[in-house]
């Protein structure tokens, strides 16, 4: 679980570096830059114009003062004095009639109020209507520049540059509808403007300033010239260009970093989500993307199943051919599966021979057929050989919380149930697996405490001589009396302990208890017989197994001839040398060693040849079903013969019928361990058996 969270966190970290945030930053920065640039231009231009206009206003105010001061009482004297000011002006009375004028009255009809930065009072102005009336007062009462007019005027000033004068109109027409001013919008031909401005020394723009005179009975409208040196203008432009260049540089840097982040992120996610061997998506990708997909789409109407697909004997293939050849095969497998699944389905290569699939389905049978179909395709990937594939399927419960790792594990469990077979096949995970899983956890949770609390009990199953009916031996068999699981038979927990390694503790426990029981019975005067104890194959990885067994028995003070060691047939397939050496040491120490389950599963004649064993235990299978016929008898009698020739005693296991007992007696079988004589029993019952001369007839 902790691992899963770590993985999700790492993935989220990578995701956080998402380039979208960088792109948004670039866009925001661009917008901000444009606004800042516009503000800079506006402030600077306003400052320059404001400065010039103020100067003009001051001198026009002087004209007003002449009027107000009544220095000149006759009008014609006043007019000639005003005329001498070298400015065009118009005097209008309250009714709007022109009383006097000098020069052409090119002011607009509308008077607008504006404020100058160094004047607290407002002034009233009219825009000049001629081509050079580049300045006007905008809605906010600010002096603005009509760039369109400025452009046109500059061009007409540099007339010689124009081959065709119509171009001015054309130019004007082009920008007519945009209606922009320097501050209301952006001129698209900034460089044209600069180029044209460079051809004149100064830019002069007329604007008409209105003054109320003669106590407001007349209005003096004077044409003021706002003079901007090209130098001022260029200074602003230079600044703008520098700022623009800076912004441009920053933008390029940001774009480069965004691009490199994008490339890096791609590389990291590829590494994070791909498997190096086949280039296919890996388990991490399956888990993280699969969880997302399920969260978005999993519903009772849109069901998903997770599949664990195993390439059976993949490792063998790699050994026979080569690892790169094997990886080529995996690539092929991945390609085929990808071609057979839908857009919303997923396939990943999880480990060497395992693939994980997330499939959609409506009907379980249809899903099974689909998986069969995929396997049928995959079986043919080799040119001359048919391969095997096994699939475990887990149907994801749309009402359960989403946990793809758990679900995949269930699919793996279902698949693992086919592990004994090398053929292709599919298994659906059902309640049986869930129960097994629950049982496994229940057993594993309790095993250590059970051992400490002595919940494991030794049962004894007597072995009788079929000819004399006398007790000749016994086998110690474990039982578990669990306070919460109840009475548990060894078939339900021994395989679990064999898998998880706890079996070694169990076998030591059993040996110790049997040795102690035997010692106690000997001391009590019982006529004791050898008791065999099972030793699992898992012990053979330990050093000095014979030494350990000897010291356990010696600790109890039991003579060695009362303890026999049973080794299962499958153990003989492990390290033969270690096995032979252990058997020899045990025999040197005075313990008899028997081969358990002879004849079950694999052929063990070979082991008989190599192992110097004392007892051969014929497996119960010899006495079940069809084997009871003539052929079965032949096999049993020959097995007994072989044992005799090898100086081994024989024990027949699982004997339930009288005829079997008689037959075995006739063949010279030494002992019989079976329900016919006795079932495994607690020590107290076994004591009674020891006391009795012959077997009670059952
Ligand atoms: P096993 O060693 O082959 O033990 C013989 C099994 O056959 C016992 O099952 C016994 O109860 C059963 N059996 C004996 N006679 C008859 C018969 O006439 N009919 C039938 N149907 N069954 C008969 P059990 O006690 O259930 O043990 C099962 C297996 O569990 C054992 O097979 C052995 O492999 C393992 N086991 C039991 N105790 C221990 C132990 O202490 N250590 C280890 N390592 N394994 C143990
Ligand atoms: Ca046994
Ligand atoms: Ca056996």
Tell me about the biggest sheet? 10 strands, mixed
Structural class: alpha/beta
Instruction: Tell me the helix content.
Output: 40-55%
Distance between the termini: 57 Å
Give the class-level CATH name of the largest domain: Alpha Beta
Strand content: 15-25%
Please report the total strand number as a whole number.
23
Mean pLDDT: 85
Explain this structure to me?
By secondary structure, this protein is of the alpha/beta class. Helices cover about 50% and strands about 20% of the residues. The protein folds into three domains: about 25-245, no CATH class; about 285-430, Alpha-Beta Plaits (2-Layer Sandwich), CATH 3.30.70.270; about 440-690, EAL domain (TIM Barrel, Alpha-Beta Barrel). It contains 21 helices and 23 strands. Strands 14, 15, 16, 17, 18, 19, 20, 21, 22 and 23 form a ten-stranded mixed β-sheet that branches. Strand 5 (about 135) and strand 6 (about 145) form a beta hairpin. The model is unreliable at about 160-165 and about 175-190 (pLDDT under 50). The structure holds ligand C2E and calcium ion (CA) (2 copies). One calcium ion binds next to loops.
């Amino acid at each position: 679980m902790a691992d899963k969270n770590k993985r999700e966190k790492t993935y989220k970290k990578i995701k956080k570096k998402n380039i979208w945030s960088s792109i948004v930053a670039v866009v925001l920065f661009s917008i901000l830059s444009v606004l800042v640039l516009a503000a800079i231009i506006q402030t600077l231009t306003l400052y320059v114009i404001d400065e010039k206009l103020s100067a003009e206003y001051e001198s026009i105010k002087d004209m007003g003062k002449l009027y107000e001061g009544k220095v000149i009482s006759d009008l014609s004297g006043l007019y000639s004095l005003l005329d001498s000011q070298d400015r065009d002006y118009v005097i209008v009375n309250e009714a709007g009639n022109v009383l006097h004028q000098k020069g052409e009255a090119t002011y607009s009809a509308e008077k607008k109020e504006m404020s100058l930065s160094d004047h607290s009072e407002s002034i009233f102005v009219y825009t000049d209507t001629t081509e050079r009336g580049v300045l006007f007062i905008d809605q906010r009462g600010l002096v603005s520049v009509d760039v369109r007019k400025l452009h046109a005027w500059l061009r007409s000033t540099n007339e010689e540059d124009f081959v065709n004068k119509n171009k001015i109109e054309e130019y004007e027409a082009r920008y007519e509808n945009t209606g922009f001013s320097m501050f209301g919008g952006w001129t698209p031909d900034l460089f044209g403007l600069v180029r044209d401005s460079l051809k004149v020394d100064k830019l002069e723009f007329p604007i008409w300033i209105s003054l109320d005179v003669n106590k407001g009975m007349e209005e003096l409208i004077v044409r003021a010239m706002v003079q901007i040196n090209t130098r001022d203008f260029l200074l602003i432009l230079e600044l703008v260009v520098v700022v623009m260049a800076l912004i441009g540089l920053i933008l390029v840097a940001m774009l480069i970093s965004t691009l490199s982040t994008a490339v890096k992120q791609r590389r990291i996610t590829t590494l994070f989500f791909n498997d190096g061997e086949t280039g296919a998506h890996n388990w991490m990708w399956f888990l993280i993307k699969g969880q997302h997909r399920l969260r978005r789409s999993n519903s009772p109407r849109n069901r998903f199943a997770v599949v664990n697909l195993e390439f059976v004997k993949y490792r063998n293939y790699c050994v026979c051919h080569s690892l790169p050849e094997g990886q080529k095969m995996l690539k092929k497998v991945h390609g085929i599966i990808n071609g057979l699944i839908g857009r919303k389905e997923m396939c990943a290569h999880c480990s060497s021979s395992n693939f994980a699939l997330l499939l959609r389905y409506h009907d379980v049978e249809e899903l099974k057929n689909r998986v069969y179909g995929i396997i049928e395709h995959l079986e043919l990937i080799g040119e001359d050989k048919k391969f095997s594939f096994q699939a475990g399927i887990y149907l994801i419960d749309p009402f359960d919380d989403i946990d793809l790792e758990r679900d995949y594990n269930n699919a793996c469990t279902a698949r693992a149930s086919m592990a004994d077979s090398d053929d292709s096949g599919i298994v659906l995970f059902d309640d049986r697996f869930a129960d097994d899983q629950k049982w496994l956890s229940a057993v594993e949770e309790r095993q250590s405490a059970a051992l400490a609390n002595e919940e494991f009990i030794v049962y004894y199953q007597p072995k009788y001589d079929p000819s004399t009916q006398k007790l000749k031996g016994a086998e110690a068999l474990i039982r578990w009396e669990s306070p919460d699981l109840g009475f548990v038979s060894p078939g339900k927990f021994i395989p679990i302990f064999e898998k998880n390694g706890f079996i070694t503790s169990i076998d030591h426990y059993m040996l110790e208890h049997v040795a102690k029981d035997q010692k106690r019975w000997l001391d009590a005067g019982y006529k004791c017989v050898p008791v065999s104890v099972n030793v699992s194959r898992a012990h053979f990885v330990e050093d000095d197994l014979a030494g350990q067994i000897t010291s356990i028995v010696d600790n109890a003070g039991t003579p060695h001839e009362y303890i026999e060691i049973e080794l299962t047939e499958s153990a003989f397939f492990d390290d033969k040398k270690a096995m032979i050496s252990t058997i020899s040491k045990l025999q040197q120490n005075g313990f008899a060693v028997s081969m358990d389950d002879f004849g079950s599963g694999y052929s063990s004649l070979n082991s008989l040849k190599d192992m110097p064993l004392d007892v051969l235990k014929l497996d119960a299978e010899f006495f079940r079903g069809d084997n009871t016929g003539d052929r079965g008898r032949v096999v049993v009698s020959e097995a007994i013969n072989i044992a005799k020739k090898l100086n081994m005693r024989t024990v027949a296991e699982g004997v339930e019928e009288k005829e079997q007992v008689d037959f075995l007696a006739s063949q010279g079988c030494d002992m019989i361990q079976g329900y016919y004589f006795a079932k495994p029993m607690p020590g107290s019952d076994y004591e009674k058996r020891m006391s009795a001369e012959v077997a009670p007839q059952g």
